[in-house]
Each structure stands twice: as C-alpha cells, then as structure tokens.
Fold this sequence. Notes:
The complex is a heterodimer.
Chain A lengths: L3 H5 L5 H26 L6 H8 L9 H11 L1 H11 L1 H5 L3 H19 L6 H4 L6
Chain B lengths: L2 E11 L5 H9 L5 E6 L2 E10 L2 H15 L3 E7 L3 E2 L1 H8 L3 H8 L22 E2 H12 L9 H16 L4 H23 L2 H16 L1
Antiparallel strand pairs in B: 1-3, 1-4, 2-3, 5-6
Helix pairs in contact in B: 2-6, 3-4
Amino acid sequence: MLTPSELNQQFSSPADRAAAQAELQRLGAFLREVVAAASGTAPVPGWLAAELQKPLRGHREPPGERLARYHTVFRDELQAIDDTLSSESQNRLDDDSLRAARYLARRLLATLLDCPPREVSQRLPATPS
Amino acid sequence: MTETYGFTLLVAGTDVQTDEALNALAEAGCDDATVGSSGGVQHLDFDREASSYLAAVLSAVDDVETAVPGVRVVRVLPDEYVTLAEIAQRTGRTRESVRLLSIGERGPGGFPPPAARGAERNKLWRWVEVASWFASALGEPVHQAPPPAHRAANALLDLRASTAELDRAELSRVRHELGSLVRRVALIEMASPASLDAKDARWSHADSV
Lengths: 129, 209
C-alpha cells in the first residue's frame, strides 16, 4: 500500500519506474472509463456497473446517482489524472509527478470501490473494457 | 498553528526610509520589520508570524508593495547562491573537504550540481540544495539553512521581474511552461493524503445524508 512516505520515496531502478508508469496507465484507463460513463459519453462498463450495485458503507444508493456524485466530488482530481495521461504530459512526467499521480489514481479508485488502496488492483479486471 | 520566520527582503524603486513610507509600512502590517539600507540597497528585515515560511514571505512582499507605491521586492535573503568557500564556512569544513565532496571524491556522491559555472574558482551553488544534501547524504543538518520554500519564493520573484523584459514570443512560451507547472503543482497538491482524506470525508458525509 502506498503510504505518505512512499510518495517521496525515490524509484529504486528504471524498472521500478517503468512499473509505476504502467500501473498509472492501467489505473488511469479505468478512471477514464468512469469519467466517460459519468459524463454519458460512453456506456457504463460491466466492472463499474457491478461495483455500483454494491452497498457503500451500508447505504444503498441508485447507481446513477452514486456515479454522478462521485464525479462531482472528485471532478478536479479525475481531470488531473486525465491531463497526466495525455501524451505530452506522459513524455515529460518527472518522478515526483509520477508518484503523485499513481497515488492519486489508487486513492480515487479505492474510494469508488470502497476498499483499501492496496486492494484496488485485485478488484479491477485485468484490462479496461 | 503559526511560527515566527526570519528573513530579509531586498527592495528596489521608491525610497522606503522616508517618514511617509515608514508610516505606511507600519499601517500595512510591517511593524514586524526593520527597514534599512546597505551599500545603496534597501532592505527590510522581518520576523513574521505565519503558518509557513512561504506564507510569511509572500504576505510580507504583498504588504510592502501595497504600502509603498513604486517599490518592488526583488529578492529574499539569506543569499541563495554560495561559493565553495562559503559552503565550507557554513558547514564548518575546510574548502578542500568541500571541494572533494563536490566532485564525488569524498562522501557518498550526488553533490548538487553548480547553479552557475564560471571559472573553477567562481562556481556557485544553491545553498538550499547544498544544505539539503548535507542533511540527507551526510546526516549533518546545517543550522539556519533556509527551508526549500525559500527557493520557490525567489523563483517567483525572479519570474515576475523577468517577464517585463521578454518579447511576445517569449512571453507566450513562458505562459505555456507555466501552464505545465501549474498542472504539476496541482497534481502534487491533490495527491497529498490530507487533501484526499478531506475529499473522502466529503464523499462519506454526502453518502450518509
């Protein structure tokens, strides 16, 4: 699990950095699906539909309302991830930004899935829809 | 929670030592500063209470420039650039010891690169980077080293001053780079655990309503 100290921890090798970048791209692709579904520009993918059906901390909420509320609360953060994933930003992504973006993506998905950040990867399908 | 931060602002433009300017500075909240000049350069020495170093410096800049029309803060001291001899003096080492550290022939390596490179004797380093390296690489915290935000404060002042000298194409380029920088800063700010915890609380609260 990423902790605050890991936000500042240097990558141990180029492979470590490449793994972080790959994880960011994967998580970011799922977040882009969330945004597209919330904006109505794409259908709700299966994995997200299943998650939205589950009660959140004991509360049931219509899936559409929950998705819209999530999109509203985390609009700026979702936009920041989208900007980071743009090709221009990807090429110039420094280590601090990469660590921050990966942490942010994990936390955003952990909130949506209502699970600890370390479990996010297992809760998601292997690839986005 | 606030702390008191000590720093000096160098100013240019209007004379800040007239009675009128001194009164205006006091009324603007700069009664925590001592005004003086040295070698023809005007300065204000602050002991300012604030939530952070950067908040202290930027509020002081704002207060000074608001109080006295035509005055411009140009730099925050202590001096950011240092020679090997000054590094030696500030760290209690010999000049040769610091020179060997700087070229990686002593110590763990990774000494910050010089910020300005003239002749060998005239190289300059950023003091914030050097002090940080002594603390992290050698475990030797340097007393009275300015915080990292010191560099940010001077960078903001430098950028502000330089834009007046740029042509339209250069300004456009600077604006483009600033856009990237703003996005980077926002990303790192958003990714702070405290910021995300606050957002999560908003999410949870709204959920329970």
